[in-house]
């Protein structure tokens, strides 16, 4: 059964079959991909080159930017190749590999967002002990746990997936290999696989959301007790960027994954998937850049240096 399944090739339908729409889709997704990669690499470069940004908050942000580059590169280049060449085929091994990497990165992002929420909790609720608690070794441990937990997240769901036989239609109604449309093509009983996916997805999302909720509950409680309105505003303003990213990412992820897969509407799934796999990586750097004074100042310095060198010449 496994040997027969390995020889299968799937067809990714993408978004549209009309040539005009495909050209529009190609232009749109190409621009989005280039812009997303460049802006996330710019954030990563800022964090690496400026010692003033070698703080836990920005180290987490640099890791998030690195993850976003990899995240969007897991799906969009393949979609662009399909639109450009018209070849919708993807092998069984490539499909399972794409699903594994995509799930790994999605879970890692949940963990990183939870770690960033904890960092804000320590900074606002324990400011005097912040440098003691958030030492480099502790930040490194948080990052390692975030990435490793994400890496092991897709292991069990993928193991259950490769036990299934695919003997029916091979057309995947999606623009990448996600679990929902793959289950639709599987033969036999997929109930066990659906339950495993639901449990794993719920555990990752709920556990990380719980950390975020508790962190922000403590932050809100602490901020409301501050006597100065200016102090309250300053404390809340350090959290708004993170909260915006959390709401967009977790809202779309929860809608897609915390439910029974076979009951999903695939047309809706595709649009929601675009939100967390394409739109979120694109807008995250914009949100953090616009709301973060240190990042803005570092960007200004980077643009001012070339001007100064030209004037010197």
Describe the structure.
By secondary structure, the chain is mainly alpha-helical. The chain is 77% helix and 3% strand. The chain contains 14 helices and 3 strands. It has helices spanning 2-6, 19-49, 56-73, 76-85, 92-125, 130-133, 136-152, 155-161, 179-185, 191-224, 229-237, 240-257, 266-291, 293-312; strands spanning 9-12, 89-91, 171-172. A 3-stranded mixed β-sheet has the order 2-1-3. Helix 2 packs antiparallel against helix 4. The longest helix has 34 residues, at 92-125. It starts with a helix and ends with a helix.
Cα distance spanning the termini: 70 Å
H-E string: HEHHHEHHHHEHHHHHH
User: What composes the largest sheet?
Assistant: 3 strands, mixed
Shape: globular
Q: Helix and strand layout, with pairings?
A:
Elements: H1 2-6, E1 9-12, H2 19-49, H3 56-73, H4 76-85, E2 89-91, H5 92-125, H6 130-133, H7 136-152, H8 155-161, E3 171-172, H9 179-185, H10 191-224, H11 229-237, H12 240-257, H13 266-291, H14 293-312
Parallel strand pairs: 1-3
Antiparallel strand pairs: 1-2
Short description:
With 313 residues, the chain is mostly helical. Helices cover 77% and strands 3% of the residues. 34% of the residues are buried.
Task: Describe the structure using short key phrases.
313 residues
């Amino acid at each position: 059964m496994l040997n027969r399944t390995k020889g299968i090739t799937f067809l990714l339908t993408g978004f549209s079959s009309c040539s005009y729409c495909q050209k529009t889709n190609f232009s749109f997704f190409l621009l989005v991909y280039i812009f997303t990669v460049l802006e996330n690499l710019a954030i990563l470069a800022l964090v690496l080159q400026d010692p003033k940004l070698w703080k836990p908050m920005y180290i987490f942000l640099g890791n998030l930017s690195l993850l976003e580059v990899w995240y969007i590169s897991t799906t969009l280049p393949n979609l662009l190749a399909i639109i450009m060449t018209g070849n919708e085929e993807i092998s069984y091994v490539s499909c399972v590999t794409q699903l594994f990497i995509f799930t790994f990165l999605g879970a890692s992002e949940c963990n990183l967002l939870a770690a960033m929420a904890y960092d804000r909790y320590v900074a606002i609720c324990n400011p005097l002990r912040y440098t003691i608690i958030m030492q480099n070794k502790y930040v490194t441990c948080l990052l390692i746990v975030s990435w490793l937990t994400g890496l092991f997240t897709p292991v069990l769901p993928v193991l259950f997936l490769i036990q299934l036989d695919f003997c029916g239609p091979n057309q995947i109604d999606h623009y990448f290999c996600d679990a929902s449309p793959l289950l639709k093509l599987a033969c036999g009983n997929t109930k066990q696989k659906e339950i495993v996916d639901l449990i794993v997805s719920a555990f990752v999302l709920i556990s990380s959301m719980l950390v975020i909720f508790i962190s922000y509950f403590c932050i809100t409680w602490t901020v409301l007790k501050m006597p100065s309105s200016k102090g309250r505003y300053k404390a809340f303003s350090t959290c708004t960027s993170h909260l915006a990213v959390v709401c967009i990412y977790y809202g779309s992820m929860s809608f897609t994954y915390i439910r029974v897969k076979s009951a999903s509407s695939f047309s809706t799934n595709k649009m929601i998937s675009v939100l967390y796999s394409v739109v979120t990586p694109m807008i995250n750097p914009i949100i953090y850049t616009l709301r973060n004074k240190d990042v803005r100042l570092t960007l200004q310095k980077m643009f001012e240096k070339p001007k100064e060198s030209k004037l010197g010449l």
